[in-house]
Design brief:
This protein is of the alpha+beta class. It has 2 domains: 7-120 and 272-285, Rossmann fold (3-Layer(aba) Sandwich); 127-265, Tumour Suppressor Smad4 (Sandwich), CATH 2.60.200.30. The chain has helices at residues 17-32, 56-62, 72-82, 108-117, 189-192, 277-285; strands at 7-12, 36-39, 52-53, 65-70, 89-93, 121-133, 139-144, 147-152, 159-165, 168-175, 177-182, 204-210, 220-223, 228-232, 240-244, 247-252, 257-271. 41% of the residues are buried.
Length: 294
């Protein structure tokens, strides 16, 4: 992170009233700290504090700090903006669950000031790299912080597909699809499919089938050095889509190949001092609600 922080990008769905309220509070606060505000779309009050409007691609290039206001989906979107630039992310939670956006609105301004002074905890999170190799020879690429998902498209029928790890055959699956999640993403979609919670700094990936037709087809944990391949098998009306953190990468048809591995890129999340991952789990998953709760 560059010091002093001279520019800060604000990212969020500004049409959401709660997000807009938070961003409007941030604008004069950052201006009073002599920080240039970068926005990709207009919001009331931005011109009064001299905010600059830039393209989405330039947010990561020009910012020293990015503040994502919203839910985890907003932070995942922001992660892709900064992945190639090493810009840290601060997440202000105006969504629902908020595993990644862990700053509450009431703590926002002190946390922003601490970020500007370099007093927050830096948390390096590895990303996933997805490559969709089509039968025509084209290669579609994207990054993901949480997960890469292959699932059926516009059909009530299940998919038949095969998985390989490091070019070794693993299984033939019958189901709605499959998730390859990072340790960070183990508490997202993969968790709802019966996957385990992985401490975010373990070098591991989770492979979780979606609605598997066979009860023995269970999630597995593999090394983050693994390369996971998924191919569809020929069957009438076989259609699937691939998404990275919920954003479409492309269609997968028989003859194509999806490849997922750990990316070289990492994202730096900023947390308040004393950030406790297990306290976060207790809060979000409602653990320890009995008489012995600490």
């Amino acid at each position: 992170m560059a010091f002093p922080v001279r520019s800060c990008a604000l990212v969020g769905r500004f049409t959401d009233a709660r997000v807009a309220e938070t961003v409007i509070a941030l604008l004069p606060h950052l201006a009073s700290r002599a920080v240039q505000v970068l926005l990709s779309e207009p919001i009331p009050g931005a011109e009064a504090v001299g905010a600059s409007f830039v393209s989405e691609a330039q947010l990561g290039e020009r910012a020293d700090l990015v503040i994502a206001v919203g839910g985890d989906g907003t932070l995942l979107y922001a992660a892709r903006l900064v992945a190639h630039h090493g810009v840290p992310l601060l997440g202000v939670n105006r969504g629902r669950l908020g595993f990644l956006t862990d700053i509450s609105p009431k703590d926002m301004l002190p946390s922003v000031d601490a970020a500007l002074r370099g007093e927050l905890e830096a948390d390096q999170r590895p990303m996933l790299a997805a490559q969709l190799h089509t039968a025509t020879g084209a290669v579609l690429r994207s990054l993901a912080l949480n997960d890469v998902v292959m699932q059926k498209h516009d059909t009530g029928r299940t998919l038949d597909f095969e998985t390989r790890i490091d070019q070794r055959f693993v299984n033939t699956h019958d189901g709605d699809g499959i998730i390859v999640a990072s340790a960070t993403g183990s508490t997202a979609y993969a968790l709802s499919c019966g996957g385990p919670i992985i401490e975010p700094h373990l070098d591991a990936l989770v492979i979780a089938p979606i609605c598997a037709h066979t009860l023995s087809d269970r999630p597995i944990v593999v090394s983050s050095r693994s390369v996971i391949e998924v191919v569809l098998l020929e069957r009438p009306d076989t259609q699937a889509n691939v998404s990275c953190d919920g954003m479409a990468l492309g269609a997968l048809v028989p003859g194509d190949r999806l490849e997922v591995r750990a990316a070289r890129e990492q994202v730096t999340l900023l947390h308040p001092p004393g950030h406790d991952y297990y306290k976060l789990l207790r809060s979000k998953l409602h653990w320890g609600r009995g008489s012995f709760e600490r």
